Amino acid sequence: MSNEELTSTIKMARQNGIVQPLLTDLYQITMAYAYWKSGKVNDVAVFDLFFRTNPFQGEFTIFAGLEECLKFLENFHYSDSDIGYLKQTLPDNIEPEFFAYLKDLTCKDIKLCAIEEGSVVFPRVPLLRVEGPLIIAQLLETTLLTLVNFASLMATNAARYRMVAGKTVSLLEFGLRRAQGPDGGLSASKYAYIGGFDGTSNVLAGKMFNIPVRGTHAHSFVTSFSTLDDIHTVTLRHSETQAPYNLLELSTQWRIKVSAIVDISPEEASDGELAALISYAIAFPTGFLALVDTYDVKRSGLLNFCAVALALNDCGYRAVGIRIDSGDLAYLSVLARESFEQIAEAFKLPWFSKLTIVASNDINEETILSLNEQGHKIDCFGIGTHLVTCQRQPALGCVYKLVEINGQPRIKLSQDVGKVTIPGHKEAYRLFGADGHALIDLLQRSSEPAPEVGQKVLCRHPFQESKRAYVIPSKVERLYKECWKDGHVCVKPKPLLEVRERVQSSLRTLRQDIKRNLNPTPYKVAVSDDLYCFIHDLWLQNAPIGELS
Ligand SMILES: Nc1ncnc2c1ncn2[C@@H]1O[C@H](COP(=O)(O)OP(=O)(O)OP(=O)(O)O)[C@@H](O)[C@H]1O
Ligand SMILES: O=P(O)(O)OC[C@H]1O[C@H](OP(=O)(O)OP(=O)(O)O)[C@H](O)[C@@H]1O
Ligand SMILES: O=C(O)c1cccnc1
Ligand SMILES: [Mg+2]
């Protein structure tokens, strides 16, 4: 397929309605006017979007949000009402021709190159390189940052939860009620899925992004029943014969039999809870997953659940499992698994030992690590607050810096060496070792030839002269792909599932010590010798010489 054919067939999904040109900081628009007024309309700029430190005291970040950036470029256009609002809001001296200029602005002259969404990325390596008319490229800053920062932070957070939970445990995102508002909640669900969660409780996210929606029920469903008389209907038809069964009678009989096996008195168990679970099972006989901690997991919830699950089995249905939302989750999950195993053995129902145990309640990375050490029996974590609010680190610090104007490099100096920008139009390469692991990311000037497999390359720390190494790569990956050019998206948008798979395959290229939770090893980011000299020459040219007196 030719490039034109490809671009004409690329259809982006609908854009989030609040992402629009006025979703920006006022200073972008005031600068646009000042650039315009000072004759910079034809100036051409290069901006890099990058972060300086990995989040969560980790040594890697997952890049996400690119597809939304492309939708933003595609739809960039000031409406009449936007222009009307700006006329009212900006000072009276703004010349009317500027508004006419804004009205016609689009991103057709912008070129955007980016690292593939879902890749592991590192400090200082630009995630996006934006080239084109200075004024337009400047106007994109805040919106691109807001689209990349939270998306990447969330995807990274989710990927970290996936790493500590392991591959076999399922992870559900339950955070909408605690998220930073409706849009924060939707983005959190989307990027948690990309980062490695299996599903969300957020129904709109399920509909919009095709993410599996999952859920159990709340304590209110249990507490709304207080006695067995609260059950409205007790009849359930057998899944195959369609014969009617009285689930209440069956469950009360089973509760007595189960209590003998797990050594808990049936009198201690709550009848209101039993009524709730029977009612829930009648409503969802094929998806019976019950919350068991409303009163007491050991003395009431487990017993009631097992009774109803066995009654359901009489009707030809297999229960799904339980959710525990308070107390010692390791201890209670072990207790629940033991009870399931005893019942499986006693009633010759092997599947009963495999019932799903979901745990929730303020879970974070540390809790999961601690539960792992304790030997829990949890199959699924439902995680809300800590995941979606990124409580451990609530922001990723991506910045957007001018690195070249009209072919001339620009550098931003700082007392803090880590904040000095790397000037010029650059390419980025990932160099891999013989064992398939990523060794180093290398930034070069775009005019330099790409590193080659088997050829020795000198990789230098961008600011510390003595830190350098020769690398002979076994594989070289060019990190930037052209994603937007001549007014068109030029990469095919990937289904979320593919981006989610990309996260895992990209993480597999990282050595374990870079990914570990405690004191991980930093991944190396280097510059070529040529770029090193270029940075330092420009630094000297721009740093004023002080005078001591
Ligand atoms: N075995 C465990 N090891 C480490 N942390 C745990 C373990 N079990 C539970 N936790 C965590 O400990 C915290 C317990 O929360 P909290 O003190 O509010 O108790 P609770 O069980 O929710 O009490 P309540 O019954 O009042 O709801 C939660 O963050 C939970 O994820
Ligand atoms: O704890 P999180 O990680 O945020 O996960 C979501 C929480 O939301 C639900 O109840 P909610 O917290 O609203 O009420 P509860 O604490 O009384 O169960 C659920 O039972 C979890 O506890
Ligand atoms: O479905 C659940 O169990 C759920 C959903 C949201 C928040 N807490 C729990
Ligand atoms: Mg809670």
UniProtKB/TrEMBL annotation:
Q: Which InterPro entries match?
A: Aldolase_TIM, N/Namide_PRibTrfase, NAPRTase_C, NAPRTase_N, Nic_PRibTrfase-Fam, Nic_PRibTrfase_pncB, Nicotinate_pribotase-like_C
Q: Which UniProt keywords apply?
A: Ligase, Magnesium, Manganese, Metal-binding, Phosphoprotein, Pyridine nucleotide biosynthesis, Transferase
Can you cite a GO biological process for this protein?
A: NAD+ biosynthetic process via the salvage pathway
Nicotinate phosphoribosyltransferase N-terminal domain mapped to chain residues: 22-149
Pathway stated in the Swiss-Prot or TrEMBL entry:
Cofactor biosynthesis; NAD(+) biosynthesis; nicotinate D-ribonucleotide from nicotinate: step 1/1
Can you cite an annotated GO cellular component? cytosol
Q: What class of enzyme is it?
A: ligase
Nicotinate phosphoribosyltransferase C-terminal domain segment(s): 426-532
Per UniProt, residues of the Nicotinate/nicotinamide phosphoribosyltransferase domain are 320-421
**Task of the protein:** Catalyzes the first step in the biosynthesis of NAD from nicotinic acid, the ATP-dependent synthesis of beta-nicotinate D-ribonucleotide from nicotinate and 5-phospho-D-ribose 1-phosphate. Helps prevent cellular oxidative stress via its role in NAD biosynthesis.
Q: Protein name, please?
A: Nicotinate phosphoribosyltransferase
Provenance organism: Diatraea saccharalis
